[in-house]
Amino acid sequence: MNLPALPTYSCIQKPFAGLPSGTDDVWNGIEAMELLETAGGDKPTLATTVQAFWTEEALYYRFVCEDDRIVATLSGHDAPIYDEDVVEVFLSEACDFGSYKEFEQSPANVLFDATIKNNLDGTIEVNTGWHAAGWETTVERKENGSQMIYVWKLPFANFEGGTPSPGDEWLMNCYRIDRGATKKDDQYMAWSTTGIVDFHTPKRFGTIRFV
């Protein structure tokens, strides 16, 4: 399979404090990443876009997800929410394929965060004992239920080196899982397609460039 070139996202800096809503004006004019089917890069049935910006304090994300069926029964921090509907970001501030951080949020605003050691042989070590300090999130659902909006504020204090400088680059991929009525209806989506249904494919991570 011929996979597309690895993408780069230019993440702009904006003045902001606090946690914005999903419809805040701060999101206006920010480039959106489109998530495609993880393995092959086809357009999924349900559209998903991701935007990001940064301040001196934190990295912000907004996922806007078309949704026709919510699957979110789990509760409790670090529950296996990846078994249900979820949005995810993987980040390596050291640009290291073998070491990165995983962040997930469910439609019920349940969070999962962990540091990952990827042995690059098909095995990973997941440390859920690590927690992202000060990570704030919201979930908004349109009244007709057709769209979910997820917003994150992720403090740079959780990353080696703290606040990046303009021009710095990290490895990143953004994902979504939407569970269908049956397993064959599940949809796996990614910003940088991986060629297989496996999000832990760091050699296919794209780049986030702080500008």
Descriptors for this entry?
211 residues, mainly beta, 14-stranded mixed beta sheet, 43% strand, globular
The fraction of residues in strands falls at 35-45%
- What is the overall pLDDT average? 96
In one word, what is the shape? globular
Helix content: under 10%
Quick one: how many beta strands? Answer: 14
What series of H and E elements makes up the topology? Answer: EEEEEEEEEEEEEE
Largest sheet: 14 strands, mixed
Helices, by number, come to 0
Q: Distance between termini?
A: 33 Å
- The structural class is mainly beta
Question: Mind telling me the C-alpha Rg?
Answer: 16 Å
Low-confidence stretches: none
Offer a quick outline of the entry:
This protein is an all-beta fold.
How does this model look, in words?
This protein has 211 residues and is an all-beta fold. 0% of the residues lie in helices and 43% in strands. Strands 1, 2, 3, 4, 5, 6, 7, 8, 9, 10, 11, 12, 13 and 14 form a 14-stranded mixed sheet that branches. It is globular. The N and C termini lie far apart (33 Å).
